[in-house]
Automatic annotation (TrEMBL):
<feature type="transmembrane region" description="Helical">
    <location>
        <begin position="292"/>
        <end position="312"/>
    </location>
</feature>
<dbReference type="GO" id="GO:0016020">
    <property type="term" value="C:membrane"/>
</dbReference>
<dbReference type="GO" id="GO:0006679">
    <property type="term" value="P:glucosylceramide biosynthetic process"/>
</dbReference>
<keyword id="KW-0812">Transmembrane</keyword>
<keyword id="KW-0472">Membrane</keyword>
<comment type="pathway">
    <text>Sphingolipid metabolism.</text>
</comment>
<dbReference type="Pfam" id="PF13506">
    <property type="entry name" value="Glyco_transf_21"/>
</dbReference>
<keyword id="KW-1133">Transmembrane helix</keyword>
<feature type="transmembrane region" description="Helical">
    <location>
        <begin position="12"/>
        <end position="32"/>
    </location>
</feature>
<dbReference type="InterPro" id="IPR025993">
    <property type="entry name" value="Ceramide_glucosylTrfase"/>
</dbReference>
<dbReference type="InterPro" id="IPR029044">
    <property type="entry name" value="Nucleotide-diphossugar_trans"/>
</dbReference>
<feature type="transmembrane region" description="Helical">
    <location>
        <begin position="318"/>
        <end position="340"/>
    </location>
</feature>
<keyword id="KW-0328">Glycosyltransferase</keyword>
<protein>
    <submittedName>
        <fullName>Glycosyl transferase, group 2 family</fullName>
        <ecNumber>2.4.1.-</ecNumber>
    </submittedName>
</protein>
<feature type="transmembrane region" description="Helical">
    <location>
        <begin position="347"/>
        <end position="367"/>
    </location>
</feature>
<comment type="pathway">
    <text>Lipid metabolism; sphingolipid metabolism.</text>
</comment>
<keyword id="KW-0808">Transferase</keyword>
Amino acid sequence: MHSLLVIVPSLRIALLGIAAIPFIYYSLALLSSLRFFLAGRRAASTAPAAGEFLPPVSILKPVRGLDPDAYANFASFCRLDYPEYEILFCVGDTADPALPVLQRLALDFPTTTIRIIIGSGRQATNDKCAKLARLTDEAAYEHLVINDSDVRVQPDYLRRMVAPLAAPKTGAVTPLYVPTEVNTWVQRLQEAGMLSEFYPGLFVAKELDGVKFALGPTIATRRSYLREFGGYAAIENRPADDLLIGRLIAEQGREVVLLPDAITTVPDYQSLGELFFKRLRWMTVMRHMRPAGHLGLIFTLGLPWTILALILAPNALIAWSFLGGYLFVRFALTLLVGQFGLRQRGVWLNMLFVPLWDALATTIWLASFTRRTIRWRGQSYAILNGQLVPANGVTPVAAASAPVER
């Protein structure tokens, strides 16, 4: 009986110690986030006047279907304050609903060089990479800016994205991103997750290991840098192409610059279910690509450990210390990234959703262990040895390769 009385309190103390580990991570996240934004502001204050480095640029946009506000998104790229650039679109076939929108765009902006290409001409499970492989070959210029179809930009977009490439050590540039609007509670929930979890995680990774990733909404680089590792053709059967591009460029000994100045994207989810499965797809991919890192996420999820601490706490002081500490660091992180860093309005409204987001993130992390496949653009894929494999065993047929004139 005596030994049992000793073991149980010892186990409780051990579990309370483990429950405190997320606070170490959150402290690192706060420090990393603050250092990132302060360094960005110092760099901005000492940067040379804009406009000194303005090489011609090819903007590459793989397209499949229509995102919300697609025409407005595409049109924003036709109003850029930049001396010489072209926009290359690639759609899978002539039945794609985006094609009429792109043709209208070319008619509405006759002074902008727009080329619409039909099909990648390749067989690949990652349709986006297959399209980008062709777009890279078709591009007229060495400097490339690759972005998703849900991105909407300001006139100075290209100047900001290309400027860091003037440094010989810079291999790629990728910016943070924020939504064009936050109108629904689901969008507010997603924004809470971005500010309190996703971006702090990036800043911690940068602090510990440097930037060895890129973000899909925009990647600026040189064609020659992509060719050093085989370009998009080398990863056309792999998931998480944006992360891989950043990693492969970094492995060539080049620096990936993470810009603190955010661009905007249009939310592509309308319901909690859509948001859940979008994040579950991403988390499942991470489990396959970085299994140890994915498992380690358990110590970045503060909510379940705080609940455990509340259950095990021997007195009210310890219980309130865990709960108050959890709420303080989570709200402080959200304010630091959202208001101080990204200068977003209404961040305090996001704070109310942070515990709900943490509950959702914990559920998604647990659910990712049960997933054998991911679903993307209406098709299911398995991930085997880091490769995307159609779940139905059917390899996609290569799309046509004929360009469509403006």
